[in-house]
Queue: 4 jobs
Job 1
Amino acid sequence: MLQVYVNNNPEDYSVTAGRISATFILHEMFIKNPIIGIGMGNYPLLRNLDEYRSFFPVISIFDASGYGGIIDVINQFGLLGLILWGMILKKIYHLTSNWKIVFFYLSFLSFLCTNDVSLSLVTDRYHVGWYSNTE
């Protein structure tokens, strides 16, 4: 049903970009890169590749996955990144024995890894055009 809607309305960015398309695209990215992920900030650069986007059309606008947090960490850094993330948080807890500090660092690391500011630094989106395999 979603595929039919997307095929009939390829310019409807409320469906072809953002969380709806990311639900499918992030899954494909994780299945194909489970160990090391796709790399920090690479979702907007890779989301238009045929191997990831399935029935979603190529879009020319900036598209972040919109999820953030642990989902972006797993997608960007893979299972190894998730394990490293957990080890860092465990070490912080053992040093402080304070869950509030652990949650603060969890939020801070999540902000650094998935925020649009860090994304723009990595992809240099203000100076480089977005990748599209139809150009």
Job 2
Amino acid sequence: MELTMLIARLLGVMYLVVGVAVLSNMLYYYKLFKEIEKQKLLMFFMSILTLVLGVLVLTYHNTWGNGVEALVTVIGWMMVIKGVINIMFPEWVMNVVKAVLVGEGIRVMGIVAFFLGVLLSFYGFLL
């Protein structure tokens, strides 16, 4: 359970900060995503990092116990899946990113990150 709380704290703070940052400066993050689209090597290294972090989470925390344990495990699996998909199908991923950037995609990503950060931080720091 201590490991669950540690991972929840780390991910919670990260998602909370990212969510607030994106929601408070959406134009900047729109431009940032557009720039990443041009940097294929950066996208590759980010995908490798996502895969490695996901495997790291699952290596030490592949637990389907209570709600927060399951949530941390699901996030680990999502990181692995995202890393693999980004590495194997980079052009398709970039087309999806382009579609998400149209309209309210940035706002929705910020809102999801914010609430995920609140939830994980609550469990990690207050329980």
Job 3
Amino acid sequence: MAGRGRAMTNIVKLGVKYGPAAYEVVKHGREPAQAAAQKAYARMSARRQALAHAAALVDGSVYQTFSGDQPVWVVFSGDEPVAAHPATDVSPSALLGHADLGKRIRPDEVGRKARRLSRARRTGAQGDQATPEASVRPDPGEAAPSVTGATVDVEDD
């Protein structure tokens, strides 16, 4: 148990030496870290609220734009802007001055890529575990290949 005693001695020495400095760092560094975490949570919460709002509307969609340096999600019903999340003093129509409304996001489209990737991981079709059919890419000018085992036979018409 001599190793444990030596480790405890080193911990006490380092604590006495660096403890006050570490306390000051934690004391003064906590507020900015909390503010950054709250800002990130509010940003994600606004997106989630906007998507939920759009899902409840007929032909609902959302578009991210900025009011100053703050991201704002504008909710649409069809082509009409109806709300903004988080709430701002600027009207949703004014936020969309030079926006490309073709890039709006529909609530049912969110997460499709993640679901597709998780499905591919579950089935094991990735990297070296891919099936021979998945790794064969036919040339558009050639006839469709038929895969048998590890060899590829090209059928000529």
Job 4
Amino acid sequence: MIIHFEDEHFIIVQKQPKEPCQSDETGDMDLCTDLENFINTRDNNKGKSKINLYVVHRLDRPVGGIIAYAKSKLAADRLTKLIKDRSFKKTYLCVTCGEPVEKSAILVHHLKKKAGQISASPFIKITKALKRPD
């Protein structure tokens, strides 16, 4: 587990691809529960009470990246407000095969999700019924 930052309000960690960031219907071990177990085991002998983390944003299951969890309801509410007000900047990077022609661009791609499945796949045929992902 890679912890990038931790204080009394937040913990920011690396989420691995294919790892759920919170519990879901699959019952697979998720990062939030794993992290709670890690913190509670680590801090057990330090006289601290058991911690429950708050999920304030998510990364899709297939995606790896950095994710922040709040350690209190107040911290979660404040970070959620920053995200809602768009004061929280998210940057997405992708790996490509070969060198892109343009140094920077905006890629818009539509995904479709089959009922009962967790993953999504690219939607090749664009229709008016599709919504932009932003």
